[in-house]
């Protein structure tokens, strides 16, 4: 069954965790469908795991369109979020044009942009135009040069700011929120406070869903896995089984376990 916003909202109300993974091509999208994954994220993480860059900053809108088109050729079941890459949302008119391209040319179901107060006017404008929007708070990979890769929201002031940003995004019309690398108690608080689904990565087990970079969950990413991730291929023996195990582990809240959480 093709997932839509109403379905994902129902998952939140029923406290059924939403299963999300990244996808960058047709084959992985196919196997994710077979594994009953709810949401596919064509993330700009492709700049690192597919293209081999040190961060996500070099990724272009054309490349996002190319990968999203490939994903959408085989995806007939998951809700598909596509990232606006670095600087594709630096001006309001450009954000609207680039979002329209992701929808018209790549059949995106939803666009995702990083940040809090800065993106509120764009979220409001997109939402008014009928475009589903996913916010992204916590660790912001597109701000790595300024802020590094660090857990966010650890002190009281930063935690309150994150909560305020999350509420402002929801009020502006965001339909979903990704929370990356924040202490689990804060992520739980934000998930409870918002009415829209909150999908966590490195944010503990008490969000409304979980997302992992597919190359991490299959152990394909060279080097050390992030602490919050898990290689599901080790025990599974095949890519399709690893994806099914991930789905099952998220739905049963077996993943993430305590060892994957960020301390307060
Ligand atoms: O680009 C991406 O893969 C992401 C996830 C880390 C949430 O934004």
Descriptive overview:
It is a single chain. With 264 residues, the chain is of the alpha/beta class. It has one domain (5-260): Phosphoenolpyruvate-binding domains (TIM Barrel), CATH 3.20.20.60. The protein is 42% helix and 14% strand. The chain has helices spanning 5-13, 26-34, 46-49, 61-74, 92-106, 120-128, 144-147, 156-172, 184-193, 214-217, 233-236, 239-251; strands at 18-22, 39-42, 79-83, 110-114, 133-138, 176-180, 198-201, 209-212. The protein has an eight-stranded parallel barrel with strand order 1-2-3-4-5-6-7-8, surrounded by seven helices. The N and C termini lie far apart (38 Å). 52% of the residues are buried. The chain binds 3-methyl-2-oxobutanoic acid. Residues 22, 41, 43-45, 83, 178, 180, 201, 211, 213 line the site of 3-methyl-2-oxobutanoic acid.
Compile the SSE list and pairings:
Blueprint: H1 5-13, E1 18-22, H2 26-34, E2 39-42, H3 46-49, H4 61-74, E3 79-83, H5 92-106, E4 110-114, H6 120-128, E5 133-138, H7 144-147, H8 156-172, E6 176-180, H9 184-193, E7 198-201, E8 209-212, H10 214-217, H11 233-236, H12 239-251
Parallel strand pairs: 1-2, 1-8, 2-3, 3-4, 4-5, 5-6, 6-7, 7-8
Helix pairs in contact: 2-4, 4-5, 5-6, 6-8, 8-9
The chain binds 3-methyl-2-oxobutanoic acid.
């Amino acid at each position: 069954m093709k997932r839509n916003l109403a379905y994902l909202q129902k998952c939140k109300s029923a406290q059924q965790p939403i299963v999300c993974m990244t996808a960058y091509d047709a084959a992985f999208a196919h196997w994710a469908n077979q594994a009953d994954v709810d949401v596919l994220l064509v993330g700009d993480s492709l700049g690192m795991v597919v293209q081999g860059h040190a961060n996500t900053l070099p990724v272009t809108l054309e490349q996002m369109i190319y990968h999203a088109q490939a994903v959408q050729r085989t995806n007939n079941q998951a809700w598909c979020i596509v990232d606006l890459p670095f600087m594709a949302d630096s001006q309001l008119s450009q954000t609207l044009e680039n979002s329209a391209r992701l929808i018209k040319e790549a059949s995106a179901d939803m666009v995702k942009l990083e940040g809090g107060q800065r993106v509120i006017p764009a979220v409001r404008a997109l939402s008014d135009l009928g475009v589903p929007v996913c916010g992204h708070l916590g660790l912001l990979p597109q701000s790595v040069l300024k802020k590094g890769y660090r857990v966010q929201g650890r002190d009281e002031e930063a935690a309150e700011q994150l909560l305020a940003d999350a509420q402002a995004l929801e009020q502006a019309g965001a339909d979903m929120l990704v929370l990356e690398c924040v202490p689990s108690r804060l992520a739980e608080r934000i998930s409870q406070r918002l009415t829209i689904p909150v999908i966590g990565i490195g944010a503990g087990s008490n969000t409304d869903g979980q997302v992992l970079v597919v190359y991490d969950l299959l152990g394909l990413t060279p080097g050390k896995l992030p602490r919050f991730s898990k290689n599901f291929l080790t025990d599974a023996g095949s890519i399709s089984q690893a994806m099914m195990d991930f789905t099952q582990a998220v739905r049963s809240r077996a993943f993430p376990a305590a060892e994957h959480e960020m301390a307060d």
